[in-house]
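#lab-general

N.A. 3:47 PM
ok so I finally got the sequence cleaned up, no stray characters, all 236 residues accounted for. can someone with queue access submit it? mine expired

B.Y. 3:52 PM
send it over

N.A. 3:53 PM
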Amino acid sequence: MERTELIEEIIRRVTEKLNQLDQPAPEEQPSDQRPGLLILTQAHGTQCHQLLESQAVGKRWKVTCALEREYRVELSEYEAVVLGDLSCAALGLIASGVESCGYTRLAIQTILSRKKVYILEEGVELYRYRETAPKGYYKMLRDKLSFLESNGAILRGREDLERILTGEKSPAKAPAPECSGEKEKRLSKRVLTERDLIEAEKEGFGAVRVDQGCIITALAKDSAVSRGIRILKDQS
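B.Y. 4:20 PM
back already:
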């Protein structure tokens, strides 16, 4: 290579390097800081899809459907789990700690990990048999649902659950009118059970008042309705 050609080649390479240095560094994509929300269901139901497709929920949560991933998910990536399509069979297995499939396995691991777990009320199969099931059998399954609630599961309807997930305040409700001569019993408990309602009825109370954070079991709610007792919560 001639001396002149060598000099020109050196100048060309130096120029290329200088041009590269002048190029702006590629911008880093901001990491997704939204917490993970896992929809855990056995079938694609309407209620679960409404949560998956909710723009308001998507703004605050990175939502994943476990069924679409064939339950191959890592729970450590999720802050909360929504349990939908809860069949009677799955309810019994989860309450007993029996992992029979990907659905029950993830549900049990969620509870054991003490993560936030919400049960979608519209997906609880047991409620379909409220009027037809033998009382003893219905109570047995309701006790299992109450057991999950007493261990941290939160039972909510879809609209109420969406408000919780988006941080939206529930619409103000007008206070229920006081019944004439109604006696009110005050209980400071973490969990309100059916037994508390039975005792309140025996003592002649028409209402039971609890703290704002008190967990009201599903069986307690049914018992209150059947006994005509109102459950009142203190305002936070």
